[in-house]
Amino acid sequence: PALSNAKSKGKDPDFKSLPLPSKKTVTKIPYDKKLEKITSDMIAEDQTILKDTITDVKHLKFLQSQLFLALSEDRLVNSNGIDISSKSAGYGGMAAAITTKGLIPNYAFEIQGGNSVESFNINDLAKEAIYEIQRAAAPKTMNFEKEVPIILEPEASTGIMGGLFLLLLNQLSGDNVASGATPYSDQVGNLISVEDFTLIDNGINPEKLSSSTYDGEGMPREKTVLVTVFLEGNGRDLKSGSLPLDF
Is the C or the N end of the chain the one with fewer CB within 10 Å? Predict the structure, then answer.
């Protein structure tokens, strides 16, 4: 549907082609085979460590944790016949808790992950989660005598805007965009965000939990086009688990 929709609208007069690179760039995606040895029991043990570490801290109540281990393999040939197949692996997760210190309970979370066994440590995740939760509960003062910018961090805005953000995210999902069913379908070409807003989408970042040699635009640094392709994605293994709030 997205491809048909794009063709029906014709060429975009505002589209500017990316410059040709001076030399071919090869994106190397690291793959740690040691991640293949992680079992569901090992992940469950990490979950227990995470929960117990947070629960042992005074004024903190464990809320939720999720851990993910993903092993994936993509076999793809682009429209120029170039094979850009790759495979990736990663392990990471999140931990959330609330603090009962003070008059109003505060909620915060921490997310970490890596593409190797050494790059993700469950104790580091627990430590940073505790730090963020305690920081959210710390008293904050602000000088209102002059105009100052206010920056809401994710930990501060989740409770207020979380539901609205998820609603907006659903409205802007790929299926809705393809069919034009978004709140901004009649705002093409108009500014709908603050002028200095920047969103970076880098699917080929080798430091991410799950990386690839291509993204939604193909491989722009090498000016390849993913329009006519043979694509087969193979999720070789996916293990995940979560611990919910336990009163």
Answer: C
Radius of gyration of the chain (CA): 22
Structure tokens at 35: 């991640």
Q: What is the pLDDT of residue 56?
A: 93
> What is the signed CA dihedral for 39, 40, 46, 49, rounded to 10 degrees?
-130
Q: How far is CA 41 from CA 38, 114, 136, 245, in A?
A: 8, 20, 33, 21
- 105-149 per-position pLDDT tens digit: 777 888 888 888 988 999 999 999 999 888 877 766 655 566 655
Domain annotation covers residue 151: no
Task: Please identify every stretch of the chain with a pLDDT value under 50, giving residue numbers as ranges.
Answer: 1-2, 152-178, 180, 182, 197-201, 216-247
pTM of the model: 0.52
Domain boundaries, position 45: 28-138+196-243
For residue 66, give the amino acid letter: Q
Mutual angle of helices 122-137 and 40-55, in 10-degree steps: 30
Query: Could you tell me if residue 79 is inside a domain?
Result: yes
Q: Can you tell me the distance from the alpha carbon of 58 to that of 95, in angstroms, rounded to the nearest whole number?
A: 17
